[in-house]
Amino acid sequence: MIKIKSISKSFVNKKSVVKVLDDINLEVDSGDIYGILGLSGAGKTTLLRIISGLEKPDVGEVIIDGININDIIGKNLRNFKKNIGVVFQGINLLMQKNVYDNIAFPLEIDKASKDVVDSRVKELCNLVGIMDKIDLYPAQLSGGQCQRVAIARALACNPKVLLLDEVTSALDPFTTKQVLNLLKEINTRLNVTIIIITHNIKVAKSICNHIAVVEGGKIIEKGTIEEVASNPQSDFCKILFAGDE
Amino acid sequence: MKDLFSILSEVDLFKGLLETLYMIIVSTLIAYIIGFPLGVFTVLTEKDGLLENKIIHKILNVIINVGRSIPFIILIIIIIPFTNLIVGKSWGPTATIVSLSIAASFFVGRIVEQSLSEVSKGIIETSVCMGATIPKIVFKVYLGEALPSIIKGISITMINIVGYSAMAGAVGGGGLGDIAIKYGYHNFRTDVMIVTLIVIVLLVQIIQILFDFISKKVDRR
Known about the structure:
The structure holds two protein chains of two kinds. Chain A is α/β, with parallel strands linked by helices. Chain A has nine helices and ten strands. In chain A, the strands form two sheets. Chain A has a six-stranded mixed sheet, with helices on both faces. Chain A has a four-stranded antiparallel sheet with strand order 2-1-4-5, covered by helices on one side. In chain A, helix 3 crosses helix 4, helix 3 packs parallel to helix 5 and helix 4 crosses helix 5. The longest helix of chain A is centred in the last third of the chain and has 17 residues, at 173-189. The radius of gyration of chain A is 18 Å and the shape is globular. Chain B is 82% helix and 0% strand. Chain B has ten helices and no strands. The longest helix of chain B has 36 residues, at 134-169. Classes of the chains: A alpha/beta, B mainly alpha. Chain A binds chain B through residues 52-54, 77-82, 84, 86-98, 105-106, 108-110, 137-139, 157, and chain B through 120, 122-123, 125-133, 136, 140-141, 144-145, 147-148, 218-221.
């Protein structure tokens, strides 16, 4: 359902041109939990920003459900974005709004009626397990709870795809496990395709069915998690997976 | 030195206070009507902003900087023809409001810009990904998130205007500054000067405390 075709992206610094992504090709099927694995600076986040439509690639295309996202603009693009839920790295909640209003925000943008917003927000709070925190503000929540709110908000408009950037990197192992279980549940129960960016191999192993390993802006290995883990080809992956055993 | 009661019977301090309040409130309102969009567009047009535009950003920055560089007492004088055109005269509190509003607009533009810059890039980008329009992001995200800081900015603006309005008193601008200069300076009435000063200091304190309180009250962080 998501096809990423030969994407390249460079950033121009004052002195030099840095190629962040170099000919990236990926195919994510509907219902996948696709892990994009790599060290910091490998280009993972840029790739996610391109898939989310936030950034345009220099060359290549992103096709979601048969639609090239670079072909649509303005209102159509804004509407199309509702198919993609995004959770960026860090806590990106409205700090001056409570949990309810945070989750209601995308629905409000979608001009949903008050009743629809109300029932949807409560449904989502139940799904991610923060019903008892609905009136609290992000500053009153733990990191894990904030991520749950962010995930609920990303799911508000019933997206087909969820893009997640390091959603567990700031969490302790226990909370990480809880959030990963939640993601698995979302994937199976709501049939939402998930693309998750992580530098943590354990995260990839515990929820992804496919992974792509990115190093220096290139995909050096991809396949099912079993294939890559059991038979790593590149030196990078050999070290990466060996260290985990 | 006369006692306070006889000073008050001689000098209409209350009228001066009302004039000063009138100048502060109306000028602050006008300054925000002009300065707020100035600050918003400066942020929107900055690098990686929602309406990134190098040229417009530069122009807005130059406007704010040049506006803020003109000493207030000189601004009052150079815009006298404009003030005459709008108010019909160039002295008194209403005329002073014209120059106060203009001077404060540039100041407001800058502090609004600073308040909005504090809003995290991540939440702006997340909103873009949700399909939010730019007005929605400006009013709901920028404004909503920066509200405590913007409220603090209002008190800084008002206190600045208190200072400016006293300067305007030197050229017949009305208000407490006018009284302090007319009586305290030109007529050597140190007692009036001191009493007027105390009123001004109290006024500034009240503005500061009030807005700090509101800012804290609305801040959920």
